[in-house]
Amino acid sequence: MFRLYYDTKSAALVASVKEALNTVFGLKADEELYLDPAAVMGAYNALRRQHNASQLLKYLIRRLQVRRDALSLWIVSDDLYVAGMNFVFGLAHPGNAAVLSTYRLDSLELVNKEAIHEMGHVLGLQHCTNDCVMQFSNSLDEAKAKPATLCERCRSLLHP
C-alpha cells in the first residue's frame, strides 16, 4: 500500500499512475490526497521559476512521520530542480517517499514511466544500466528511450 498525493493540475493523472504502480510493483494506493507545493515555504525559487525537489521531499517525509504513513508519491505539475542540476523529473528517498514532476513529461506514458522509476527508488532500487525503467534519464529523449518495465535483475532485487 502507498499514499498518492497530487496537485490540482495532476489530478487527472492519478488513476493511470495508480494502475501503472499496481501493475509493476503490486502497490495499491490506499488514499489519494491533494497537496499544494505552494504550501511548502522556501521551496519555490523565483529566479529559477522552479521548486526545489529536495525541499518538497523533506516536507513530504516530515508530513509522513506525523501521519505515520509508509510509502508515498507526490505528483506535482511544477518544474523541479536539485542543487547542481538544471532540472529533475523526480526525487526519491528510499523507504519513504518520492516527488515526481510532470512539467517536462509530454505524455501520460512518460508520467507513468517516471512514477515507476521514482517508486522503484522508494522501494530500494538504484539506477540500472540494463534495458530497464531504472535507467537514469538526463533528458526527455533518454526518458522516452527507456522501457516502462523493470529488467530481470531489478525484479529479482525486489523479490529475492
Describe the protein:
It is a single chain. The protein is α/β, with parallel strands linked by helices and 160 residues long. The protein has a single domain (2-127), classed as Collagenase (Catalytic Domain) (3-Layer(aba) Sandwich). 34% of the residues lie in helices and 21% in strands. The strands form two sheets. A five-stranded mixed beta sheet has the order 2-1-5-8-7, with helices on both faces. Strands 3-4-6 form a three-stranded mixed beta sheet. The longest helix has 15 residues, at 53-67. The protein is globular. The two termini are 20 Å apart.
> How do the strands line up in the largest sheet?
2-1-5-8-7
Enter the CATH topology name.
Collagenase (Catalytic Domain)
As residue ranges, the low-confidence spans are none
Q: How many β strands by DSSP?
A: 8
Which range best describes the helical content: under 10%, 10-25%, 25-40%, 40-55%, 55-70% or over 70%?
Answer: 25-40%
Listing every helix as H and every strand as E from the N terminus to the C terminus, the arrangement reads EHEEEHEEEEHHH
What about the largest sheet?
A: 5 strands, mixed
By CATH reckoning, the class would read: Alpha Beta
Structural domain tally? 1
Q: How widely separated are the two ends?
A: 20 Å
Q: Structural class, please?
A: alpha/beta
Radius of gyration: 15 Å
- Examine the secondary-structure arrangement and name the CATH architecture: 3-Layer(aba) Sandwich
Tell me the strand percentage band: 15-25%
Shape: globular
